[in-house]
Amino acid sequence: MSAPVDAPETGRRGDLDILLELLDLEEVAEDVFLGHHPEKVASRTFGGQLVSQAVMAAGRTAGSRPIHALNAHFVRGGDVKKPIEFHVERHRDGRAFANRTVTATQDGQELFVMLASFQEWGKGLEHAHERPEVPDPETLPRVQESFAGFEDKLEMFVNAPHPIDMRYTNDPAWILKGTGEKLNHNRVWMRADGTLPDDPLIHVAALSYSSDTTVLDSIITTHGLSWGLDRIVAATVNHSIWFHRPFRFDEWALYATESPVAAGSRGLATGRFYSRSGDLLATTVQEGVIRHFPARR
Fold first, then answer.
1. Residues contacting residue 157 through CB under 8 Å, at least 6 positions apart
2. Beta bridge partners of 106
3. Catalytic one of 213, 214, 284, 286
4. Which end of the chain is more exposed for a tag (fewer CB within 10 A), N or C?
């Protein structure tokens, strides 16, 4: 890894402002919200953007109840030149529970469907996996530092918005590739690259956005492969998150991911977000289409 840096890069706060603008959906009709894309975009809508905007749409209709689970399915790629409509369907509003379905559409076609469940926090049995022992985030370089020397291969990552301060505790895939090492897990410290508003829904949405950034890494590092350096095609099929307790996502959280299986051209990855003090904040599961095209010899 490159040498650690103590101060954030100049100008990265602007990317967080852009994310907050993306989360500020426009209500265009009852339970219908309009979301937009950032200026920096890839060829299709980033999955984390869809999830986070859908969280905001559903949460805007659920009152003060916190979201505790979401299950999302990606139907087709979004056109980054067009806004997205988020249609919220209300299924139940109980004393402590609420259920919503959010459907994201463009030109009448479904891009994405998410079921969200809301429940008031309560007391009960408690246990959790322990947080892995890793170096403190202040001792680690920002992910942008690890792009040095790989700018031409990782152009999509280099030019993407960086609203989240990310610091790998292990070498990322593109550095591992050069060492020949294989790794069946990835662990990354994450937090918003600046202070977030106090609204808990925004913190949930920011974590949801971040949960789609490194979760598939362990599928390819298990095989010694890397984004940008190997011919890999990847697309998210479905994504689920369970939120276990309140948190602030402008404080450090460790995203520990691994891949239990890859088969049938699909890979499954699981992840856990831990607070710095060791509390398990959220659990994720993502399935993606993963296709590798080895170079011909």
1. 147, 227, 228
2. 109
3. 286
4. C
4-8, 119-123, 201-205, 258-262: segment of lowest average pLDDT = 4-8
The beta strand positions in 139-221, using DSSP E, are: 164-168, 185-192
Residue 127 neighbours by CB under 8 Å, 6+ apart: none
Give the tokens for residue 118. Answer: 């809301």
What is the residue-wise DSSP string for 200-249? HHHHHHHHHHHTTTSTTHHHHHTTT--TTTS-EEEEEEEEEEEE-S---T
**Burial grade of 94 (CB within 10 A; 0-12, 13-18, 19 or more):** exposed
CB 37 within 8 A of CB 50: no
Q: Is 198 a catalytic residue?
A: no
Q: 268 forms bridges with which residues in the sheet?
A: 261, 287
Catalytic member of 236, 257, 283, 284: 236
Write down the catalytic residue from 193, 212, 230, 250: 212
Q: What is the pLDDT of residues 182-202, one digit of tens each?
A: 999 999 999 999 999 999 999
When pLDDT is cut at 50, 70 and 90, the band that residue 159 belongs to is confident
pTM of the model: 0.92
152 is catalytic: no
Mean pLDDT of 31-35: 98
Closest CA to 176 of 131, 212, 132, 218: 218
Phi, psi of 122 (to 5 degrees): -145, 170
8: confidence class by pLDDT, cuts 50, 70, 90: very low
SS3 40: coil
Q: Catalytic site residue 106?
A: no
Query: Who's near 177: CB < 8 A, 6+ residues apart?
Result: 224, 225, 226, 229, 230
